[in-house]
Amino acid sequence: MPRWRQGQRRLVIAAANATHTFRIAASPACSVCRFSPSCIPPDAVRAKPSKIKGRTTVPLRKLAAGFLDFQRDTFAPKRQFFDQLAQKQEPKVAMIACSDSRVDPAILTNSESGDIFMVRNVANLVPPCARDEEKHGISAALEFAVIALEVQHIIVFGHANCGGIKALLTNDPTTAEEHEFIHNWLDIAGEARRRTLIAARNQPLEVQLHKLEREAIKTSLSNLLTFPWIEQRVRDGRLRLHGWHFDLHSGSIDVYVASEDRFLPLTIDLIAELQDG
Ligand SMILES: [Zn+2]
């Protein structure tokens, strides 16, 4: 039975082993999840109201509120656009980006749903093509993007202050001891690390990191070419590979120019030049 919680101006309903707290004057949505009671996640269902309102739910409430904003401000006004997207995706660009929460390429490039086929992992690395019985998630994603979706561009999207690259450079023993998979994963850029330590051995750590972030992008670009269906398409002009490096401090992106073996600030003219060249 519904009951009023004294002093809180909230209606508390116990149903289906869950307790939902409804604001009296607000819309009839649960104040915990803002959806109908059936949408409450199992953890929230089991938690007591005092825990539900605690700090741990703040991030999820923010996500839920953000989604509702998207639903109202973006989805509803562009219903036809999303109806078309529901039928099929036709992205022209695939990206390999870092999982870092600060560096979301879709946000940074003002992209829309359907624009980018996104692959994210620690340190935005591409492993070399390996035909064995292991589960190759990155390779499978690339295969789908290139062969099924026929993307025209693949961008390896690196960034400054990359924790993965720093762990690789400093060979952080904590990383190796406390993590089962990261150390081996980062070894994809082991050769880039060796090149960096030789070229910048007397430089401060910040300089070495900056260089390794870019060398790792170049390694991933090289590894992309070890996949025959990528190499073939690059050779006949159906596919182009790009390396971008984003700096969170300056808010700028530098683009790898292979013909000069250096990174230059992103401009529309430079992108057009690389696309035509
Ligand atoms: Zn990173």
UniProtKB/TrEMBL annotation:
GO MF annotation list: carbonate dehydratase activity; zinc ion binding
Function statement: Reversible hydration of carbon dioxide.
Cofactor-binding details, from the entry: Binds 1 zinc ion per subunit.
Superkingdom of origin: Bacteria
Similarity comment: Belongs to the beta-class carbonic anhydrase family.
Keyword terms, alphabetized: Lyase, Metal-binding, Zinc
Protein name according to UniProt: Carbonic anhydrase
Enzyme Commission (EC) number: 4.2.1.1
Catalysed reaction, written as an equation: hydrogencarbonate + H(+) = CO2 + H2O
Annotated residues for binding of Zn(2+): C98, D100, H159, C162
Pfam families: Pro_CA
Cofactor(s) it depends on: Zn(2+)
Example GO BP: carbon utilization
